[in-house]
Design a protein that fits this description.
The protein is α/β, with parallel strands linked by helices. The protein is 40% helix and 18% strand. The protein folds into two domains: 3-197 and 387-405, Rossmann fold (3-Layer(aba) Sandwich); 214-384, Glycogen Phosphorylase B (Rossmann fold, 3-Layer(aba) Sandwich). It contains 14 helices and 14 strands. The strands form two sheets. It has an eight-stranded mixed β-sheet, sandwiched between helices. Strands 11-10-9-12-13-14 form a six-stranded parallel β-sheet, sandwiched between helices. α1 (16-28) crosses α14. The longest helix has 20 residues, at 386-405.
Length: 412
């Protein structure tokens, strides 16, 4: 049985992409999957940063059929300078817990998800090559990090480090066409696959037919005060929309991180519904009463990563036949224009009132809203659901392992 080791540095062990999608899909297709995951201050944590206080305290354990091996995050926080020094020196002695634990698993494929876990993966790969037991190394770039627009010296140095590390991997995975194109400019011959952040197709989906007097706008994920998921914009949208729509609700699926609270104004409490963080498999149920999905990335002038993003919530909306309203972000704009499944505001920085205008337009044009909903669901059914991505991933793994078995010849 082929063994796959997921190397994780900063993500939760329950991360939607890593655990719920990739690891479970590999396990389903007969791979032996182990994840090496970080504890923070001795605790594992949920996707909203809430710690597991009195459970999952063993160094390793089985979780939904997948082996979890843990280490202390505080013991593996390599600086960019430290990592660059080892990469340049072609050294083998990466004396780090993630490297040691990874080597102990003796896997066939190592699948890294951050810059630091990729660094550990290279340490494992070099050591195994020295032992005459080569492995395949995958880097799964969930984001364009470091962001090329961020000119802080630390991030410029990290960009140089990542460029050098890409030379030692066997396969790159990423999440959008533009991020793939960016990496092609770095390593034109490197195999690159896009695995969109899509959920499994919602088999229980039923087209929603709301009354003409009601409308629900939804937001999935983390609510903050800036950058994305702004609480102020949610309040502005709700205030404006409820004055024109008799039965208006803004539904937040998720919310603030553990230890924080959302201070909803008293005048809006009847119009804002807050579910709190729900299990991955229950998100579709919470989407059943949502008519329009909202995404806002406010820092586009400083972030190429945001412009190129196709986030989890984007596909969650589409999976449930929910058109999306978003500010002017390159890859989401391209997608929405292609599939006619939402509205892109012609502004990089959009206000709550700007979004409310789009909400009211769709409220007043229910035929447009209905067609966009049909288009959204159709795109997911035909092209973007996780079942399609799973097929891509398994084919990629098979090709990678097939290449590993082939003898390597050098022409004389």
């Amino acid at each position: 049985m082929t063994k796959v080791c997921m190397l994780v540095h900063t993500h939760s062990f329950l991360d939607t992409r890593i655990f719920q999608k990739e690891a479970k899909s590999l396990q389903k297709h007969g791979y032996d999957v182990v994840m090496i995951v970080p504890r923070i201050k001795g605790k594992l944590f949920k996707v909203n940063k809430e710690p597991f206080d009195n459970e999952l305290l063993e160094p390793s354990f089985m979780y939904e059929g997948i082996k979890m091996v843990t280490y202390d995050f505080e013991s593996f926080k390599p600086t960019v300078e430290h990592m660059q020094e080892h990469i340049d020196a072609k050294s083998l002695t990466f004396n780090h817990p993630l490297v040691k634990l990874g080597l102990a698993e003796n896997a066939d494929v190592y699948h890294a998800h951050e810059v630091a876990s990729l660094f550990a993966g290279i340490g494992i790969k070099r050591q195994r090559e020295k032992e005459g037991k080569p492995i395949q190394l995958i880097f799964d770039s969930h984001d364009l990090i470091p962001d090329p627009f961020d000119k802080k010296p630390k991030f410029i140095a990290m960009g140089k480090l990542l460029d050098d590390m890409l030379k030692e991997i066997d396969q790159l995975i990423t999440v959008s066409p533009s991020i793939k194109a960016y990496y092609i400019t770095k390593q034109p011959l490197l195999p690159i696959e896009i695995l969109y952040n899509s959920p499994p197709l919602n088999k229980k989906f039923k087209a929603r037919v709301p009354k003409d007097t009601e409308l629900t706008v939804g937001y999935e994920g983390h609510v903050a005060d800036n950058k994305k998921g702004s609480s102020d914009k949610i309040y502005q949208m709700t205030e404006r929309s409820k004055s024109h729509i008799n039965d208006f609700t803004f539904k937040i699926i998720g919310g603030v991180l553990h230890g924080h609270s959302l201070d909803i104004p008293d005048t809006l409490k009847d119009n804002i519904s807050l579910t709190g963080w729900v299990p991955f498999e229950n998100i579709a149920d919470e989407m059943a009463e949502v008519d329009i999905g909202w995404i806002d990335f406010d820092d586009l002038s400083n972030s190429l990563n945001r412009s190129y993003a196709l986030p989890n919530k984007f596909f969650s909306y589409l999976n449930n036949g929910i058109p999306v309203i978003v500010n002017k972000c390159h890859d989401m704009e391209q997608f929405i224009q292609t599939h006619q499944c939402g509205i892109v505001l012609n502004k990089q920085k959009a206000t709550g009132d700007d979004y409310a205008e789009a909400i009211l337009y769709l409220h007043q044009n229910r035929d447009v809203l209905k067609q966009m909903s049909i288009n959204a669901r159709k795109a997911m059914e035909q092209l973007y659901n996780w079942e399609k991505m799973e097929q891509r991933m398994i084919q990629m793994y098979e090709a990678l392992l097939d290449d590993q078995q082939k003898p390597f010849y050098i022409e004389k």
